[in-house]
């Protein structure tokens, strides 16, 4: 990780936070057998991210979007998505239980992460597409939306393939469908909503300069 010294200070802090978050997410995880599936890819890609950011620099905003999503994933992985105790956290700061207040019967943290993927992927994708792919802004926006939709679909196919490789308990814990037969479709839908909300923001940022 010696290449960190060549990166902007904000990005060094982001990468350091992720590096610390990997073991923090693994310690005491609810389903240790799934830990390598959820945290392993982050650990493997982190050194590559340092190299990539040196070879293809990104703005702090774009890097922050990627880092923010990864941190959300590490938080969710600690409790295997379905059991993130956000209601307890809200009670601790005196806000009350979000699920009960909204009449929800399932843990919604996985939906939040899928929504965040769509919302946070647009800016870095567009920056990379315009700066290094030499695409026009319109092409970049179209590609960004297609990227979110395609990655969301491929990830749901990956989750389906796990049901054939893992035990029913482990597969259910990883996939986090919580008894909802339309969980995959809803996950893809909220990611699409996040992306659609981010598109006009990206257009505004370009117009702003």
Please name the defining characteristics of this protein.
about 210 residues; 9 helices; about 75% helix
Plain-language structure description:
With 209 residues, the protein is an all-alpha fold. It is 75% helix and 0% strand. It contains 9 helices and no strands. It has helices at residues 9-26, 35-55, 60-78, 86-92, 98-102, 109-131, 137-165, 168-175, 183-208.
How would you summarize what this structure contains?
This protein has 9 helices and no strands. It has 209 residues and is an all-alpha fold. It has 2 domains: 1-80; 110-209, no CATH class.
Total DSSP E strands: 0
User: In which range does the helix fraction lie?
Assistant: over 70%
Terminal Cα span: 33 Å
Count of helix runs? 9
Q: Roughly what is the average pLDDT, rounded to an integer?
A: 87
Profile the largest sheet: none
Task: Give the amount of beta strand, in percent.
Answer: under 5%
Sum up the overall morphology in one term: globular
Question: Regarding quaternary structure, how should these chains be classified?
Answer: single chain
Order of helices and strands: HHHHHHHHH
SSE class:
mainly alpha
User: How many distinct folded domains?
Assistant: 2
Residue stretches low in confidence (pLDDT < 50, at least 5 long) are: none
Question: Any idea what the radius of gyration is?
Answer: 18 Å
